[in-house]
Amino acid sequence: MPAPTDSTHLPIREQMEALIRRKQKEITEGLESVDTVKFHPDEWQRGNDGGGGRSMVISNGSTFEKGGVNISVVYGNLTPGGVVAMKNDHADLELPTDPNTGLPVAEGVKFFACGLSMVIHPFNPHCPTTHLNYRYFETWNPDGTPQTWWFGGGADLTPSYLYEEDAEHFHTLHKQALDKHDTSLYPKWKKWADEYYLIKHRGETRGIGGTFFDDYNEKDPKEILKIVEDSFDAFLPSYLPIIKKRKDMPYTEEEKKWQLIRRGRYVEYNLIYDRGTQFGLRTPGSRVESILMSLPEHASWVYNHQPAPGSREAKLLEATANPREWAK
Prior knowledge:
The chain has 328 residues and is α+β, with helices and mostly antiparallel strands. It has helices at residues 12-32, 80-87, 164-179, 185-196, 221-246, 253-272, 275-282, 288-291, 312-321; strands at 40-45, 50-59, 64-78, 109-122, 129-140, 146-158, 198-199, 204-205, 213-216. A seven-stranded antiparallel β-sheet has the order 1-2-3-4-5-6-9. A hairpin with a 4-residue loop joins strand 7 and strand 8. The two termini are 38 Å apart. It is an enzyme of class 1 (oxidoreductase). InterPro entries: Coprogen_oxidase_aer (IPR001260), Coprogen_oxidase_aer_sf (IPR036406).
C-alpha cells in the first residue's frame, strides 16, 4: 500500500504533523482561558532514535489540577516484537521475512508515527476529566518499499458526577463533526469507544464515552485528514462550556473522595488496557514522562467501595455499566 500524498504533493504525514502542531497551540490557549496558570513546554528527543516531541503541561492551576497536551513525531525501526504485539489491532501490518531463510528480519519494519494526545484532570469533582488523541502511522519494508498506513484516535469524557446535559453536549458536537463526512461514522465510533474504554475486570467503562477509531484507511487519506481536523475543531466547543459551568461549583469532602476513587479506575484502565500507553512503552527511546502524563496526580482505592443505592454516585456507575446514546 503506497504511502499517501495528495494534490499538494505533500506527504500526508507532513500535513498531519503540521495539523497537530497547530492544534496543540489552539487547544492549550483555549484551556488557559479558563485557568489562571499557563501551560509550560517540555521539548524532548528520542536520543539515538529518530524524532521527538513537545509536551505542554499544566499543574496546580485554579481549574486544572494536572494536564498535558502532547505531540510526538517519531520514526525508526519497529522491532519484530513490536510488530507482533500490534498485529492483532492492525491487520495490514506485516513482519517481513528474509527471502533466503524465510525467517523474520531482525530489524523489523521502518515506521513513522505522529499524533497529539491530551488528558486534562480538573480539581472540581463536578468537572469531567477529558481525553483526546489523534494519530497517524506509516510503515515501510526494510528495502524502503511502502507497507501500510492508518489513522486513529477519538475523544471521550470521564465525569465523576453525571450531568446528562453535559454528556449530550459533548457527544452531539462530536457527532456533528463526523456527520459532515459520513453519517455512519459516529454510531460506529461511539460503539467502538464504549467497547474500547471498558474496564473489563470491573465490568464498567472508564467514563461516558465519546468516539474511538483505529487502523482506519478505508477512505482517501486527504478525506480522513479532514475528518481528523473537524474532530479536533469540535473539542474546545464541546468541553470548555462544561468547564465554565462547573469549575466554581461548591463540593464536599465526600464528593472529592469519590472523584479520587473514579480516578483510580482511570489509572487501572490506562495502565492495563490503553493501546497508546502500551505502544509508547514498547517504542525504543520513547518519552516515559509524556506517556504517563495521562495519570492523575492523586487517586484512591477503597476496599469494596459501594455507593448508596439511588445516590448520584450510583447513577454514574449505572451509566458506565450500561452505555447510553447521548447525541441529539
